[in-house]
Amino acid sequence: MLQLNVIMSESFNEETNSFITETWPLKLEHSLVSLSKWESKYEKPFLESNNKSEEEILDYITMMDLEEESPPEVFSNLSNEDYNRINTYINAKMTATWFNRKNKPKGGRQVITSELIYYWITSYEIPWTVEMWHLNRLFTLIEVFNEEHGSRDNKTKRRSGTSLAEERRALNESRRRQLGTNG
Fold first, then answer.
1. What torsion do the CA atoms of 77, 57, 1, 119 make, to the nearest 10 degrees?
2. What is the mean pLDDT of residues 94-119?
């Protein structure tokens, strides 16, 4: 979660010679829930669409608001520094997990939408509470499931091939003994 203190107003108190700043605490989460809300409104994939208008970007930030009680002025008072922090937060890895991508085949890219992500978490039986996680962390968990299922499938295939070869060897040896041959 990203926490910002958005400056709502600034004034100068001449009696105390100090600035008075009023802020609004804004709590944001780049999550599957916010992604789903945005895609419901705009009916296009958020993650694949690089050409977003300022209105679409601002709407996504409002949909990231966890409190959902922030007055609209809060979002119009976001500074450039606030936008930079939001962008950095959205692009953050949010995990210590990494993957070795050397031997990864590059196939056709799939358009990722919120429904596809919900499908992945359902098919892997991941609790839906992860819909409030940072999206990059959720993607990492899904990738861990992909890697683990892939390595488990490869081990099963190798064992099957090995056991088939052993069965053939045993059968051939048995036949040689029965027929009294050596080849």
1. 160
2. 79
Q: Taking the complete model, does pTM exceed 0.90, yes or no?
A: no
Residues 74-103 have a mean pLDDT of: 89
Classified as helix, coil or strand, 27 is: strand
Q: What's the CA gap between 112 and 36, in Å, rounded?
A: 11
For residue 146, what pLDDT band results from cuts at 50, 70 and 90? confident
Q: Are strands 18-28 and 2-13 parallel, antiparallel or unpaired?
A: antiparallel
Structure tokens at 75: 């979002």
Q: Radius of gyration over alpha carbons of the chain, in Å?
A: 28
How confident is the model at residue 50, as a pLDDT?
78
CB 128 within 8 A of CB 121: yes
Distance CA 183, CA 165 (A): 17
Residue 35's H or E segment, with its range, is helix 32-42
Share of the chain above pLDDT 70, in %: 87
| SS3 annotation, 93-133 | CCCCCCCCCCCCCCCCCCCCCHHHHHHHHHHCCCCHHHHHC
**Cα distance between residue 6 and residue 9, in whole Å:** 9
User: Residue 96 has which token pair?
Assistant: 């210590």
